[in-house]
Amino acid sequence: MKYILFAIALVAAAPAFAEEPKTLYWEELLPEGELERLEELYASQPMAAFGHSPYDDPMMGGMPVQIGTFNVVEELEGKLVRIPGFVLPFEYSKSGEISEFLLVPYFGACIHVPPPPPNQLVYVEAEKPAKLGQQWNAIWAIGILRTKKHINELGDAAYTLELQGWEEYDD
């Protein structure tokens, strides 16, 4: 009987032993030396930094050029993380829920200017569609981070997050 009580106590206490997500900020997604690489890339294509390139002329059939690399911090693979950002959904359900979106580091990223570098975008996929509060408010996205790239027309992402939950951003 005491073994059964011990087992019940362990099961009841399990949430207390659950892993806490690591709070992660955008600069931590850049491998060592990557910021310097980005500065060199932007210096070599200064007009792209302001959303202008030969490719964003509609007659040329292009979009603003995304500058940067897919270099990632390999140690983050498979980590449970909590990262702040803004939601850029691919599409909404009728009830306002989404199951995939880009998490971007600043408001308006990918909409009016070239997207941030791939290693500054996180593609998020939710097993169950979620309603993520007010569209333009920042959130904390919580889930398992993967060093898996995702290519799409809004901006290529070097990371993928398997969404487990979210919170309103309040820092």
Topology:
Layout: H1 2-17, E1 22-23, H2 34-44, E2 79-89, E3 98-104, E4 122-130, E5 139-146, E6 159-168
Parallel strand pairs: 1-2, 4-6
Antiparallel strand pairs: 2-3, 2-5, 3-4, 5-6
Q: Give me the Rg, rounded.
A: 19 Å
Number of helical segments with 4 or more residues = 2
Helix-strand string? HEHEEEEE
Helical content band:
10-25%
How much of the residues is beta strand, in percent? Answer: 25-35%
Provide the CATH architecture of the domain at 21-35 and 71-168: Beta Barrel
The fold-level CATH name of the domain at 21-35 and 71-168 is: OB fold (Dihydrolipoamide Acetyltransferase, E2P)
Name the CATH class of the domain at 21-35 and 71-168. Mainly Beta
Number of strands: 6
Question: In order across it, which strands form the biggest sheet?
Answer: 2-3-4-6-5
Give start-end ranges of low-pLDDT stretches.
1-17
CATH superfamily of the domain at 21-35 and 71-168: Protein of unknown function (DUF3299)
Described by the principal axes of the CA atoms, the overall outline is globular
Largest sheet, strands/sense/barrel: 5 strands, mixed, barrel
End-to-end CA span: 47 Å
Structural class based on helices, strands and sheet pairing:
alpha/beta
Mean pLDDT: 81
Task: Describe the protein's architecture and organization.
By secondary structure, this protein is α/β, with parallel strands linked by helices. It has a domain of 113 residues: OB fold (Dihydrolipoamide Acetyltransferase, E2P). It has two helices and six strands, in the order H-E-H-E-E-E-E-E. It has a five-stranded mixed barrel with strand order 2-3-4-6-5. It starts with a helix and ends with a strand.
